[in-house]
Each structure stands twice: as structure tokens, then as C-alpha cells.
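Retry 2 of 3 after timeout on previous attempt. Resubmitting C-alpha cells to design endpoint.
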């Protein structure tokens, strides 16, 4: 005669099955959460890497007129130090003149000539646009020609470059001789010469973490700017013309070609 399961045995079996199911569900949930967080972080890092690639190219393509210190149009790099870049309210912004399609692409009119580029961090806007690293660009020549009627709010194009960047910090190495006692570059928070270019910049993005209670993730690049020496040693048009005329035997015309343009960095 076969003996059936007692009520106690059935209850134990149900409890065991429930515990196994709960454990498997929790394990699956944690694995999926970790996978989603890892995927999200990979996407953010790829966005940051793309942004840095474009910004590095843009800084290396800095434009500077070889007689640039003869005017006061802020052709060099400009830095507003907002703090250490831990969040939007403590972030820096930078602005410089460049050539080429880096950062802004080839669809904007400004990409066809020398243009200003400004980078800054902005919190999410009231009308629904995302916060993150924003770009503003405009035709530098047009602004200089129409400076008296220049309305910054209505000039140029601005767009969200990279979302999920919650902080931005920029530091400056003024020249190759600006070193610490141990020989490492001396990084400074301010750059007061808006009509010249520093030797190097150190850019740090802080990416929004995947979890609210985590700290932002810093991503950093150091860029050497090729036109630093041009901005530090601008050519005098009058002296250059005189020298060129003298080289030609005197009385000749001045140098031909675009002396007002430094050209893209190579």
C-alpha cells in the first residue's frame, strides 16, 4: 500500500520551490540590472570619447591671425573659470576660433570659414531640452564686421553636443617653461589673455553616473595647441611688408597672400 505525502512534507516542498524561484529571480534581476548599467556606461563613455576626439581635433585646428595681437577681437582662447567642474554650477566654459568641420560638422554655414566655438555645461532646460555639454558656433568675421549691432542671443547656432555630461573643468599650461618643481606641467585655473593661445589645455568631463548615489565619472584629455608660438610671436604687418620689400630690392610690393589667417593646424 503506497503512502502519500503528508501536509507538512508538501508545505516544505512548496517553501523550497518558492525559495529557489525567489533566488533565481533575484539573481536574474541583479544580472539584468548590472548588464543595463554596464551598457549604459559603455554608451556614455563612447559618447565622451567621440566628443573628446572632436574637441581635440577642433583645438588643434585653432585659427589665429599671424598679426593677431594687433587687434582686440579675442581671437585666442577664452576661459571662464566657474570652479572645479564638479557639477553644472561649478563648470567652466571655453571659447576659441577654429577652422574646419570638427565639433560642428559640415552642414553649418560657419564651417566654411573661421568661426568661433564655445563649449559649456547646461542643466536641463525648462522647455524639455536635455542638459549636458552644449556648443555654440558663429562666423567670427561677420561678428567682427558688425560688432556694433552684434546680438549674441540671435547670432550663430547652438546645439546639445553630448548629453549626460554634468561637469566640465579646463586648466591651462601657459607655455612650455611653465612647470612644477618636479618637472610636471603647471596647470592653472585662469587664462586672462583672450587674444592669445595657451601652450596646452587639460579638459575634464564628468559623466553622469548610472546610479543617483554615485559620484560623476571623470574623463580627461590633455591637448597641445600647435599655434601657441604664432599667438605669442605675431608678425607685424608693417615690418613684414618692409622686410619683404627690402628682400626684393626695395620699393616692391608687400608680401602676397593671406597674412590675416593663421590657417588650420596640421
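Retry 2 succeeded. Sequence:
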Amino acid at each position: 500500500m503506497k503512502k502519500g505525502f503528508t501536509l507538512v512534507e508538501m508545505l516544505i516542498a512548496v517553501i523550497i520551490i518558492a525559495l529557489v524561484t525567489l533566488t533565481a529571480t533575484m539573481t536574474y534581476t541583479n544580472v539584468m540590472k548590472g548588464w543595463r548599467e554596464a551598457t549604459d556606461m559603455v554608451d556614455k563613455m563612447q559618447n565622451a570619447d567621440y566628443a573628446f576626439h572632436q574637441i581635440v581635433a577642433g583645438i588643434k585646428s585653432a585659427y589665429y591671425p599671424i598679426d593677431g595681437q594687433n587687434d582686440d577681437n579675442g581671437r585666442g582662447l577664452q576661459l571662464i573659470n566657474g570652479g572645479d567642474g564638479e557639477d553644472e554650477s561649478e563648470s567652466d566654459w571655453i571659447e576659441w576660433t577654429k577652422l574646419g568641420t570638427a565639433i560642428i560638422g559640415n552642414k553649418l554655414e560657419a564651417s566654411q570659414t573661421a568661426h568661433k566655438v564655445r563649449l559649456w555645461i547646461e542643466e536641463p532646460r525648462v522647455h524639455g531640452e536635455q542638459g549636458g555639454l552644449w556648443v555654440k558656433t558663429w562666423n567670427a568675421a561677420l561678428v567682427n564686421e558688425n560688432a556694433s549691432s552684434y546680438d549674441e542671443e540671435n547670432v550663430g547656432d547652438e546645439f546639445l553636443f553630448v548629453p549626460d555630461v554634468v561637469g566640465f573643468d579646463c586648466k591651462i599650461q601657459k607655455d612650455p617653461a611653465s612647470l612644477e618643481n618636479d618637472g610636471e606641467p603647471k596647470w592653472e585655473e585662469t587664462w586672462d589673455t583672450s587674444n592669445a593661445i595657451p601652450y596646452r589645455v587639460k579638459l575634464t568631463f564628468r559623466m553622469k553616473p548610472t546610479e543617483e548615489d554615485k559620484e560623476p565619472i571623470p574623463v580627461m584629455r590633455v591637448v597641445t595647441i600647435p599655434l601657441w608660438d604664432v599667438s605669442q610671436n605675431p608678425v607685424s604687418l608693417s615690418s613684414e611688408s618692409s622686410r619683404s620689400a627690402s628682400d626684393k630690392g626695395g620699393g616692391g610690393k608687400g608680401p602676397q597672400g593671406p597674412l590675416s589667417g593663421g590657417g588650420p593646424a596640421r
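Attempt log closed. The first strand starts at residue 78 and ends at 80.
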